[in-house]
Amino acid sequence: MALTPSAPLDTKAPFMYNHRNYTMIMVLDMSERIIQEPCCTLDISGEEEEKLVAMFKAIGNPLRFEVLKYLVNHPGCITNDFVDHLPIAQATVSQHLKVLRQAGWIEGTVEGAATSYCLNEENILWFRNKVEEIF
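Predicted structure:
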């Protein structure tokens, strides 16, 4: 993206900076324009971008991240297993599981009256590939 001013620039314009007890005046030489290149080449938009953002948001919560960490070593957990592991109420655990499921981090299988949760390996692989493209 090129920096193009709406008005012509004075190539040796004075610049004043005020900070608490002192004032600094500098003359900037702007005879050479700086051209900025795009910061990344990530080609993502639409539903794919929404999915990536939702996955990042979901793991931004420390308790949801703890749920994911627990599932790595304890696949097939039910809600009560998380209630026993985390210092929060069952209703709150259920809400966090819902967010992780909607974001694609986990999937649940109904087994009688309970739901057994595990990591969604396909979505995690997709997430890892997208993050690798960025960084």
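Summary: Confidence is low (pLDDT under 50) at residues 1-7.
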